[in-house]
Write a structure and sequence with these properties.
The structure is a single chain. With 378 residues, this protein is α+β, with helices and mostly antiparallel strands. The protein has three domains: 3-117, no CATH class; 124-300, Sandwich (Jelly Rolls); 306-377, Phage tail protein beta-alpha-beta fold (3-Layer(bab) Sandwich), CATH 3.55.50.30. Helix content is 25%, strand content 37%. It contains eight helices and 26 strands. It has helices spanning 3-12, 18-29, 34-48, 55-74, 83-96, 297-301, 315-326, 351-358, and strands at 103-106, 114-117, 124-125, 127-131, 136-139, 145-148, 152-154, 159-161, 166-171, 175-180, 186-189, 193-198, 205-217, 225-230, 233-237, 241-246, 253-259, 262-266, 275-277, 281-286, 289-294, 307-314, 329-332, 340-346, 364-369, 372-377. Strand 18 and strand 19 form a beta hairpin. The radius of gyration is 26 Å and the shape is elongated.
Length: 378
């Protein structure tokens, strides 16, 4: 083992002297050592890649870095590092604390190696509104929702746009948003979803079109039925609370009722073909057929309250939700359709914590590369 390898090992064990830390940083600063540095760091990643990072570890790493910096300054031996090498040392301190997250080592054209955290973070309040004239407004992530009235405003009253006849609210993967429609109906839009709505509800119906998933709290109006069009399904209500999940890649539409009553119809069917739902019932429309079953409605609504909640849910169903919310891609190295999970997980957990909990089935293993999660059997 070379001297640098020995110092590096002691660094990870937090046994380095200030002089050794300075020597290690000087070695990192020399671009001719890029390949050797990559090998050192990659070996440590391979050894500890399944350890999750926690916020307290980051704080501890920062304190450790400040302490080392102070010690070196006191001995008058500090040399200025280029900005990216500060990231290298900070990353190594995190590893030394046992708070490893996935690092990717890039070697730019000048040969310098840059170590960066592979950050997969939970979704936030992000959306766009497409107005009737085709213009697109990017909504601020500093707000949680918008209100439709004579104008489109944020919930605090600040203006977004002037009058428009209709609009479409769209959330990206990794986004969610809330909207209050002109009649007072509140809609929570999940990730990778869109809601097309009019600025005013005229006539004897209030109609919107949903793609993706949304939770509705419909304002009661006995003179105007509220109708949600979603793919091959129409949901008819007068005033109720329900969730519709109509993602194309789910190949079905699930409507879950929390309060009130709704009627589920096929878009090409007749009123005689409708299904009536009571609270804690769910209708599923698939391949032109309708069915219903009793469920815990809170499970379907959990996403709007910041949670993933599953009961014997197949792993591919779960991973589709995670992919939308964390904006990642999922690759299956072996079939896992028979793997199920029951439990509740915060939607704001670190992705590694989410995967660790899912892996408690002892039947699967997860690996991440960039923004891709690979799933395989143990």
């Amino acid at each position: 083992m070379s001297d640098i390898q020995e110092i590096y090992s002691r660094f990870l064990a937090r046994q380095c002297t200030a002089e050794e830390v300075e020597l290690l940083m000087a070695h990192f600063e020399d671009k001719e050592n890029a390949a050797a540095i990559q090998e050192l760091i990659q070996a440590e990643i391979d050894r500890t890649h399944d350890v999750e990072i926690e916020q307290k570890d980051i704080a501890a790493a920062h304190q450790n870095w400040v302490a080392l910096n102070t010690r070196i300054h006191q001995q008058g031996r500090i040399r200025k590092l280029q900005r990216y090498w500060v990231s290298v040392v900070a990353g190594l301190l995190l590893i030394a604390l046992g708070a490893t997250f996935y690092y990717k080592v890039n070697v730019p054209s000048d040969g310098a190696a840059i170590v960066a955290a592979n950050k997969i973070v939970p979704g936030t309040n992000r959306a766009t509104v497409t107005l009737a004239d085709g213009s697109i407004v990017d909504l601020s992530d500093g707000h949680t929702g918008v209100v439709v009235s004579d104008n489109l405003t944020y919930e605090d009253g600040s203006a977004i746009s002037g009058a428009t006849t209709s609009a479409t609210l769209t959330t990206p993967r990794g986004g969610q948003y809330r909207i209050t429609l002109a009649d007072g109906t509140k809609v929570w839009l999940n990730a990778a979803s869109s809601l097309q709505y009019p600025a005013r509800f005229d006539g004897d119906t209030r109609e919107v079109t949903l793609r993706g998933e949304a939770y509705f709290e419909v304002a009661h109006n006995g003179r105007q039925r509220f109708i949600v069009n979603s793919g091959e399904q129409r949901t008819v209500v007068k005033g109720t609370k329900f969730n519709i999940s109509a993602y194309p890649d789910d190949h079905q539409i699930a409507t879950t009722l929390l309060e009130g009553s709704v009627a589920i119809q096929l878009s090409q069917g007749t009123k005689d073909d409708e299904l009536l739902l009571k609270p804690d019932q769910e209708a599923v429309v698939k391949d032109g057929k309708m069915s219903k079953r009793s469920v815990d409605a809170n499970e379907a609504m959990a996403w709007s309250q910041g949670k993933f909640m599953f009961t014997d849910a197949p792993l591919p169903v779960i991973m589709r939700q995670i992919a939308r919310w964390y904006d990642v891609d999922v690759t299956y190295l072996q079939p896992v359709d028979d793997v199920t999970f029951t439990g509740s997980i915060s939607r704001f957990d670190n992705i590694q914590d989410v995967l660790r909990k899912l892996a408690l089935t002892d039947r699967i293993k997860f690996e991440t590369q960039e923004r891709r999660i690979m799933v395989k059997r143990e």
